[in-house]
Amino acid sequence: MLGLMDELPKGEIFVIGATNRLESIDPALRRPGRFDKHLEFLPPTEKGRFDILQIHTRQWKVHPSTDFLRTLAERTTGFSGADLSKLCSDSFDRALNKHLDANNNREFRNITFHNLNVEESDWIETLLKMKPSATAVFGSTLYTPSKGLGNHVDQLVKSNVDRIIEDLRPLIPTTSNNAVISGIRAAYLLSTPGILPKDMDEMFMASLFRSEEIAHYPVYNLSSEVLSAVRWSEWPSKMNSAFSQAAESHQPSILYLPQVDELWNSIVSLSMTTSVNLPQMLEKLRGKKVLVIATGAIHPMHFSWECPFKQVFKSVFRLEFPSSMERGHLFQEALKNVQVV
Fold it and tell me: Where does the chain hold its CATH 1.10.8.60 domain(s)?
């Protein structure tokens, strides 16, 4: 291919290539004079998702409310345009089936559809069965925050999330900041006793990545769920893929390493410290507009001396367990509409 491209008359023929596996492309193909102009297509932003939902429901006789479409846009982080189209069509099909079941004693030609309405419950039931396609195709490690456990839980962790965002602000890479950073942007979120790993991801981190300041960044994930999906012998290539996708992203991005202390222990127990070669992977991020966010229950200063992460995480921020007032407010809101019989 390289030889064929070099023989093309300059300025007369445009060659356009596409891939879902950027890290698998030979670097020689991306040098000046070859595929040297890059366009990256990421899942739509929250505003983009709202606009797409409006387009797909525009011809409906009964339109979903604007507020509800905004709620759907907020809860569909990571969904592509095709995912959102399927969400709309499946929700409509669900409402249609309910409408037909309600008229099961009538002939089809006598059934009227002017009062067919896609209710919020139809949307929610459909959404619970869907998963963003971008997280599971062609080796992508794009992270999609969980849909959360409701506004009450978001309020429970809000003070923590607001404080962490303020602490992270100097480290967050931006497109407008063209300054060359020679080091690695990295932050370690230290959990306190009482915060379980699952709570860390579903409550704290999901709320952080859904926040307005962070939600528009592509987040690449290297969690135990990602690694457990492959054989342990494939760990080196899977980990290298996550680091490469973050480093080669053409816009500022985030590399998320949940429970990084346990990740290192797993690498050591499997005698993979040499094959994984974490120092080399971390070097890919030096000078890049990538923020590494890791979580764990052990302070990095207590990592073993041979752990490469020990020298990377200089910025450590502690996640505090919600106060009794915050927990009390959660139960008050959750039980507000409960009727005592």
Answer: 50-134
Beta carbons of 53 and 84 less than 8 angstroms apart: yes
The rounded distance, in Å, linking the Cα atoms of 65 and 118 is 11
- Name the token pair of 48: 């983009």
Pick the CATH number of 151-325 from 1.20.1270.10, 3.40.50.150, 3.40.50.300, 3.90.228.20: 3.40.50.300
Residue intervals in the chain for CATH 3.40.50.300: 151-325
Class of domain 50-134: mainly alpha
Residue 303 φ/ψ region, left for φ over 0, alpha for ψ in the -120 to 50 degree band, beta for the rest: beta
- The Cα–Cα gap between 285 and 245 comes to 10
Question: What are 284-315's pLDDT values in tens digits?
Answer: 888 888 899 998 888 988 988 888 888 888 88
| 182 dihedral zone (left: phi>0; alpha: psi -120 to 50; beta) | alpha
CB 194 within 8 A of CB 323: no
For 185: left if phi > 0, alpha if psi spans -120 to 50, otherwise beta; the answer is beta
The bridge status of strand 315-319 relative to strand 185-191 is parallel
pLDDT confidence band for 178 (50 / 70 / 90):
very low
Packed helices 81-102 and 120-128: angle between N→C axes, nearest 10 degrees: 120
Q: 97: Cβ–Cβ under 8 A, 6 or more apart, which residues?
A: none
Taking only the tens place, the pLDDT of each residue in 75-114 is: 787 788 888 999 999 999 988 888 777 767 555 566 666 6
Q: What percent of the chain has pLDDT over 90?
A: 8
